[in-house]
Design a protein that fits this description.
The complex is a heterodimer of chains A (about 110) and B (about 110).
Chain A lengths: L3 E4 L2 E5 L4 E7 L3 E9 L5 E7 L2 E5 L2 E6 L4 E6 L8 E9 L5 E3 L3 E6 L1
Parallel strand pairs in A: 2-11
Antiparallel strand pairs in A: 1-3, 3-8, 4-5, 4-9, 6-7, 7-8, 9-10, 9-11
Chain B lengths: L4 E3 L2 E4 L5 E6 L6 E7 L5 E8 L14 E5 L5 E5 L8 E8 L8 E2 L3 E5 L1
Parallel strand pairs in B: 2-10
Antiparallel strand pairs in B: 1-3, 3-7, 4-5, 4-8, 6-7, 8-9, 8-10
Classes of the chains: A mainly beta (about 110), B mainly beta (about 110).
């Protein structure tokens, strides 16, 4: 079993829909990261959080430390949101990131 | 300001040859990470540098892989006697501190071993 599990692996939705991507992890962590990887391969950091909730534009990330679970939400989705979204955790006491397998999101116009 | 840069952007090499990949982190970032992404797979941690501390090499897949960093600047990842399974995109990231800060990723080097 992977230390970081994401669901779903693939998600296709229509423009305007509310999107939720889930991430569960099995280790104690110091922080959780959400990353976005566009088709060209470039990776952008969206959020880094260790508790609670963060919001940036149409993106919202939440984390429940007790349940070892995080969600990434996209409101009013747009075709330009189409990308692979990656959850990664930083182990407690370690500095390296352990990555989920990613969720491929496709938003159709 | 300038982001993380990597060179070359693409590298094709013959099996058995050595390759060197370069990463220039964001100025002032003390932490530098190397990751690998094989085709269709997730990201894998390779090695991490933080300031003058000993690097965390726990992700290096074999002793053919090594990395160096000069102070808090440029890093090079060297793969000796390349194998076809080394084909991947090698990504570098930097952050201003460890763990608790977001990481800024470079565009990657696509390595193809023929």
């Amino acid at each position: 079993k992977n230390e970081v599990e994401q669901s779903p692996q693939n998600l296709t939705a229509q423009e305007g829909e509310f999107i939720t991507i889930n991430c569960s992890y099995s280790v104690g962590i110091s922080a959780l990261h959400w990353l976005q990887q566009h088709p060209g391969g470039g990776i952008v950091s969206l959020f880094m959080l260790s508790s609670g909730k963060k919001k940036h534009g149409r993106l919202i990330a939440t984390i429940n430390i007790q349940e070892k679970h995080s969600s990434l939400h996209i409101t009013a989705s747009h075709p330009r949101d189409s990308a692979v979204y990656i959850c990664a955790v930083a182990d407690q006491g370690a500095q390296k990131l352990v990555f989920g397998q990613g969720t491929r999101l496709t938003i159709n116009p | 300001g300038a982001g993380v840069s990597q060179s070359p952007s693409n590298k094709v090499t013959e099996k058995g040859k050595d390759v060197e990949l370069r990463c220039d982190p964001i100025s002032g970032h003390t932490a530098l990470y190397w990751y690998r992404q094989r085709l269709g797979q997730g990201l894998e941690f390779l090695i991490y540098f933080q300031g003058n501390s000993a690097p965390d090499k726990s992700g290096l897949p074999s002793d053919r892989f090594s990395a160096e960093r000069t102070g808090e600047s440029v890093s090079t990842l060297t793969i000796q006697r390349t194998q076809q399974e080394d084909s991947a995109v090698y990504l570098c990231a930097s952050s201003s501190r460890t763990g608790y800060n977001e990481q800024y990723f470079g565009p990657g080097t696509r390595l193809t071993v023929t």
